[in-house]
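Q: Here's a chain of 393 amino acids. Please give me its 3D structure as tokens.
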Amino acid sequence: MSRAIVHIDMNTFFVSCERLTNSELNGIPLIIGGGERGVVASCSYEARRFGVRSAMPIHMAMKLCPQAKIMKGDMELYSRLSHDITEIIQEKAPVVEKASIDEFYLDITGIDKFYGSYKWTNELAHRITEQTGLPLTFALSVNKTVSKIGTGEGKQKQNLEIPEHLVQSFLNPLSIQKIPMVGEKTFQLLSRIGIRTIKTLSEMPVEPLQQMIGKNGIELWKKANGIDNNPVEPYTERKSISTEHTFSQDTIDVAKLNRLLQGMVEKLAYQLRSEEWLTSTVTVKIRYANFDTETKQSRVAYTSADHILTGTVTDLFNKLYQRRMRLRLIGVRFSGLVRGTYQIDIFQDTEEMLALYQAMDRMKNRYGFDAVMRCAGASFKPNNKNEILKRKS
């Protein structure tokens, strides 16, 4: 039996959320993002007509579309509405994967036996829009890759259903850039040897492709041929990552404790970025020498940036540690995780900050976590026997 996989994409999600609360923003070029030195987090279709795109520097976007209105963005609003959408989908769909704050995969295999899959999905889409006021596009096909590509095409052609026997004819005329894993470098590499459409790529022998691109060559060839066996992974809000440090000798050294906390945050934030998670809830835990244990938590806008999370953790620790007794344990936990492509806080960070994080992560990926660390957190040693790194679900 063929699978039935739905991809739902909330159209220009941040822009649509802002317009939901302020109708005066309807119909005008709108850019959501940081200040003058920041980057575009999202933009309206009116701004896109001028060439504005997500992740573009704000100053470049303003040159292309000087009449655009720029808004910093309200991540709390976006997170709340994303949660509302998730609840509506989970109430109806048997298996749901929340791929990002505004993207969802649904496995509805078998529904067609009792109720048409497309009709069911269309009714769910109407329900989401009616209850939230937010527009969306969906595509229904046999796997995640084809459905995601279908959603991109559906923004111009309305919602699509791509049955198994039409998958290849649907994919063939499209640019290879439509395949999710094809970035600019891969596109340029393949273009130089005349591979620009999915049809040409699908007909290429897989061995030369693997030699050119490496281990991803086979996966790319499969996607070009409409093959993707990746399952829809059920989403849960309860996932978290955490780390705790138990001292060999109880301490009251606040400076040392703050340095240790910063190192713990840096390690966890790097793990978030490496695994493409964003956190929305930060918790700090302390245990006194008499074994009294206290915790304090705070909600944050979805992020995986050290400097933002460090500030939150430091603030929580200062509010939590009031008794001035010696501590035997401290811990940090990030929860309320969601998959996403927004690697760091693009609403506040500059181009330089984005480049710094990317460079640091490249060095850590190549040479190990200890290759580059902030001075304040350098005293935190991830290999310390007393440290416990946990991942909960």
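Q: Can you summarize the key feature?
A: The radius of gyration is 23 Å.
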